[in-house]
Amino acid sequence: MPHPLDSLMYFTMPAEHHLSSGFPGFDPSIPLPVQLSAPDEGFKPDHLTAEMILAGILTVLAYDIDNAHIEYYRTLIRAVHPEIRTEMTEAAIFKIHNGDFDLAEEIFLSLKGLDPEDRVTTLNLALLYDERADSLRTSGLDEDAEAYDNLAFEYYRASMTADPPIPDAFFNAGYFYLKQKNFRKARECLESYLELEDGTSETAKIRKERASSVIETIASRKLDDDLFKTAYDNIIMGNEEEALEKIRLFMESHTGVWNAWFLLGWALRRLERWEDGRAAFMKALELYNAALAESVEPDSSGGLTDICNELSICLMELGELDESRRFLLAALEQEPENTKIISNLGMVSLRAGNTAEAAGFFKTVLEMDPNDLLAREMLQRTEG
Fold first, then answer.
1. What is the mean predicted confidence (pLDDT) over 66-90?
2. Residue 333: other Cβ atoms inside 10 A
């Protein structure tokens, strides 16, 4: 795939050019980047528009931050579009909602190039990479998701250095660490958010209640214990046996924590100990439902989906296909657009010998995410 800078060419525009008056502070001695719609066709001066120049400047801001004329380009675009930050931020958020992560990223990178110290844009990039990682993980692309997790981590960390502080940076970073099972960092970020947030809006009120609830849950279950975090990290690194040792040590004094039983089941499932994994996930489900009934577990935590999905895999491998399907449907009810769940429903149908039904599930996944390689491979098998 060609790099965005490959679509640029530089044009030294004469002072008398009819477009020069549209760029306050224009300097004819400095070449302007021009965005070509069809680079292979070359540059046609007669077809030059102000939009092509502005698009070229934005591309430079996004991908060529060390350009010798970067300050000049920043001055030009601010003069032409003084409200560009607001306008482009709204456009990027719209693109994210439509799943166009690439264009949203390019917009935010342009804004970051326009003002590298703008921590709000830094936070928006963190949120973008965070959401993109979630989307990839839902599609089963765990390695790609991890790469975007790493980017999100770097941008969250940078956004939390803003002066004055941005409360939302700490709130969103807290939930990012929560998904990473780094409960200690999650707690620290959410505690910082509560200290910083002095807003009185309904949104601020809801967020403060949620942050307080998560902090209390982490504290009551001792989820920020080093043993828990080490167990999770070992599973991620493929050291399941070491993870089992750590999580069992943790469970010696915390037997009623569903998250611990989930980690135990996850390690066992990865070791293909299907029967033991099923038992652990069933216990996790029992404890999760009990916590939910007592209103100490937020019903939007995603825990039910994860438990049901992992449990269904163990059941499928044990040949209990009807039960596997039942738990997958329960997970799908929680997250109707989770392509990983839909894909697993296809796998269950395939195991049951219902090829047509399996193909339907895999086609649904590809309609939602054309880049899902596993669904594409499995669909080819059903059609072969």
1. 94
2. 12
